[in-house]
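Entry type: protein chain
Record version: 2
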Amino acid sequence: MSVTGLRVFDETLQLTHSWLKDLMQRLDWDNRQDAYAALRAVLHALRDRMSVDEAAQLGAQLPMLIRGFYYEGWHPAHKPLKERHKAQFFDHVGREMRRDGNFDPEPVVEAVFELLADRVSVGEIDDIKGLLPAELKALWPA
């Protein structure tokens, strides 16, 4: 039975739910809204840290609905950001999630990186990791 009446929308909804469920399991969370906020925040921080071409290549591999919020609010004119340290990247994630200082973004970033490593092509992940400073590269799964 179709939820939206359009197969392509039903499929991207189902795939997006699958990504969120996977992320919730990795983080041991039970709140889908928090998982969405985490995925969106890390994707935005990563996108803003990459060149426009590389950001577009990652976007092409995301499910349609996730791709939509990946590009939401993007202004590529002043990208990539030069965040050289993981603390800067974590601050970016925290701002995107709108969390207070008690929030530990490291496990969230690691979980999203694991999710991406499992669901995006190895070549694309290698390209992304090649653009990142050592501190951020170390957060990806081996």
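Comment: The mean pLDDT is 92.
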